[in-house]
C-alpha cells in the first residue's frame, strides 16, 4: 500500500470525493476558458474559504482552508488519450490530491492519476490492484466504489480508478493512454470519455479534519 503522508512541495519549472461536472464558476470564467481552448472546473460543497481562479492560458490558482469538499482545475471538455504537460507549485495539508482527473460514461467511471497528495485517502476502502512502471514514474493501482454519490450523471453508484505515483512530483508529463492500457490489463474497463482536468482537490475525512493549502498550476 502507498503510505499515508503529508506533503509540502513547491517546484517551479511546474472523497474520497466525487465532484460533479458543474460548479459555482461564473459565466465569465466559463466563457474565458472556452475561448482559450480549455475547460475550467470549479466545484465545492458545504465549504468556505475556497478560492479557485481561472488564469490566462492554461493557468489556474487555488487557495483553501476548509472542511468542505472541492475540486477545481483546468483541462479539456474531452478526455481520451492525451499527453498532459504541466508545471507549478502545490502545498497542502489534510486530505487531498493534485491529479489528472476525469470521467467516462457507459460505464460511468471516475478516475484519478495522482501526481502529489497530502493525506492520501484516510479511512477510505481502496482495493490495491498492483503496480506498474513507466518512463514517467512508478505507480500503484487501486479501485474503489462510490454508492449513491454525486456524478456527472446525477446521484449514481460507480467505480473509481486510481493510479498513485510512488514518488510525488509537481511538474512533468502524464500520458493518459499509458494508464488506460495498464488498467485494461487489470480488467478495469473505461467508457466514452467526458472531460479531463489537472485538478486540485480537498475534502474532509469522516470524523477528521478538513484541508488547507495553495497551488498554482499551468498546463503547457
Strand residues, percent: over 45%
CATH homologous superfamily annotation: Glycoside hydrolase family 11/12, catalytic domain
CATH class: Mainly Beta
Taking all Cα atoms into account, the compactness measure Rg is: 16 Å
**Termini separation:** 32 Å
List low-confidence stretches. Answer: 1-27
Q: Spell the H/E element sequence.
A: EHEEEEEEEEEEEHEE
Overall tally of structural domains = 1
Structural class: mainly beta
Keywords: Carbohydrate metabolism, Glycosidase, Hydrolase, Polysaccharide degradation, Signal, Xylan degradation
Family: Belongs to the glycosyl hydrolase 11 (cellulase G) family.
InterPro entries: ConA-like_dom_sf, GH11/12, GH11_AS_1, GH11_dom, Glyco_hydro_11
GO biological process, one term: xylan catabolic process
Structure keywords:
single chain; 220 residues; mainly beta; Jelly Rolls; eight-stranded mixed sheet; six-stranded antiparallel sheet; 2 helices; 14 strands; 9% helix; 54% strand; globular; disordered N terminus; ConA-like_dom_sf; hydrolase; GH11/12; Endo-1,4-beta-xylanase; signal
Task: Give your account of this protein's structure.
This is Endo-1,4-beta-xylanase. This protein is mainly β and 220 residues long. It has one domain (22-219): Jelly Rolls (Sandwich). The chain has helices at residues 27-35, 176-185, and strands at 7-11, 39-45, 50-54, 59-66, 69-76, 83-93, 96-105, 109-117, 127-134, 137-149, 156-165, 172-175, 192-202, 211-219. The protein has an 8-stranded mixed beta sheet with strand order 2-5-13-7-8-11-10-9. Strands 1, 3, 4, 6, 12 and 14 form a 6-stranded antiparallel beta sheet that branches. The protein starts with 6 loop residues before the first strand and ends with a strand. The model is unreliable at 1-27 (pLDDT under 50).
Amino acid at each position: 500500500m502507498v503510505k499515508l503522508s503529508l506533503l509540502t512541495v513547491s517546484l517551479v519549472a511546474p472523497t474520497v470525493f466525487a465532484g460533479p461536472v458543474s460548479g459555482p464558476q461564473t459565466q465569465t470564467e466559463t466563457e474565458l476558458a472556452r475561448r482559450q481552448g480549455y475547460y475550467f472546473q470549479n466545484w465545492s460543497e458545504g465549504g468556505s474559504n475556497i478560492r479557485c481562479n481561472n488564469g490566462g492560458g492554461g493557468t489556474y490558482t487555488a487557495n483553501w482552508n476548509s472542511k468542505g469538499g472541492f475540486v477545481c482545475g483546468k483541462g479539456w471538455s474531452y478526455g481520451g488519450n492525451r499527453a498532459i504537460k504541466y508545471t507549478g507549485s502545490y502545498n497542502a495539508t489534510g486530505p487531498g490530491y493534485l491529479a489528472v482527473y476525469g470521467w467516462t460514461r457507459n460505464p460511468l467511471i471516475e478516475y484519478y492519476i495522482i501526481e502529489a497528495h497530502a493525506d492520501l485517502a484516510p479511512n477510505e476502502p481502496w482495493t490495491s490492484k498492483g503496480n506498474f512502471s513507466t518512463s514517467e514514474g512508478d505507480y500503484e493501482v487501486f479501485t474503489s466504489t462510490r454508492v449513491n454519490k454525486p456524478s456527472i450523471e446525477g446521484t449514481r453508484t460507480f467505480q473509481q480508478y486510481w493510479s498513485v505515483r510512488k514518488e510525488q512530483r509537481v511538474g512533468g508529463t502524464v500520458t493518459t493512454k499509458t494508464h488506460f492500457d495498464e488498467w485494461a490489463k487489470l480488467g478495469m474497463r473505461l467508457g466514452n470519455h467526458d472531460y479531463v482536468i489537472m485538478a486540485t482537490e480537498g475534502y474532509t475525512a469522516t470524523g477528521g479534519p478538513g484541508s488547507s493549502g495553495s497551488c498554482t498550476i499551468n498546463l503547457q
